[in-house]
Structures are given as structure tokens and as C-alpha cells.
TrEMBL record:
InterPro entries: DsrEFH-like, Sulphur_relay_DsrE/F-like, Sulphur_relay_TusC/DsrF. Keywords: Transferase. One of its GO terms (molecular function) is transferase activity. The gene is tusC. It comes from Buchnera aphidicola (Sarucallis kahawaluokalani). It comes from the Bacteria. This is Sulfurtransferase complex subunit TusC. The lineage of its organism: Bacteria, Pseudomonadati, Pseudomonadota, Gammaproteobacteria, Enterobacterales. Coiled coil: none annotated. SUPFAM superfamilies: DsrEFH-like. Gene3D superfamilies: DsrEFH-like.
Length: 119
């Protein structure tokens, strides 16, 4: 079975890339068991708890990320340097159980996957 890495590197509401990535993962969960989620660059903003997309007349898709716990998916990696670049700390509450790693560790983790999809 192939191992798939989903890399979120874009902000949540600047484009539809985050939502499209999420939809692809939802469709893959029936067929692929080993999926890793990587949040780098602006992608770290995808899983912040305190999003208020209704202020820009958008619908929040963040709660869907929490659903992956039901699928027993726990491979969530968050880039520490990206957190710092956005003025966030590792102590910011994330609803998902994420592994906060430096970029070189994330790169090493990504190398263990067969397929990479960037959103």
C-alpha cells in the first residue's frame, strides 16, 4: 500500500487549495491507510482553532480536520519555524494532536512517503 503525504503550504482562505486538499484526503481514506499531514509555511494557519471565516463570508472547513481522529489518523506534523514566522508559539492550542518539528525533521519524514501532494 502506498504512503501519501499531504502538504498544506497555503493559507486557509486565500484560495481553495486547503479545502481541495481536505476533500482529496476524505476521498482517499477509503483506500489508503497511511496518510501523513504536513503543515508548513502559511499552511500552519490551516489548523488554528480560532478561525473566524464568517467575517469574510466564507464557511469554516477547519472542523473537518478533527474528523481524521475517527479514521485513526494521527500523522500530523507542524513546522516550528513556520509557527515563529507567523508570530505563533508552540503553546498555541491546536485541536489536533500535532507533532511540532523543525523543518529538517519534517523533510526527513516526508522522504518516507511514496506520493506527495501539495496544497
Amino acid at each position: 500500500m502506498k504512503k501519501v503525504a499531504i502538504i498544506f503550504s497555503n493559507a486557509p482562505y486565500g484560495s481553495n487549495l486547503g479545502l481541495e486538499g481536505l476533500n482529496i484526503v476524505l476521498s482517499m481514506t477509503c483506500y489508503i491507510e497511511n496518510i501523513g499531514f504536513f503543515f508548513v509555511g502559511d499552511g500552519v494557519l490551516q489548523i488554528l482553532d480560532y478561525q473566524k471565516p464568517n467575517h469574510i463570508f466564507s464557511k469554516s472547513y477547519f472542523p473537518t480536520f478533527k474528523m481524521f481522529n475517527l479514521y485513526n489518523m494521527h500523522n500530523f506534523y507542524l513546522c516550528y519555524e513556520s509557527l515563529l514566522q507567523h508570530g505563533l508559539s508552540a503553546n498555541v492550542f491546536y485541536s489536533l494532536n500535532v507533532h511540532i518539528c523543525n523543518f529538517s525533521n519534517i523533510r526527513n519524514q516526508i522522504c518516507n512517503f511514496d506520493v506527495l501532494l501539495n496544497f
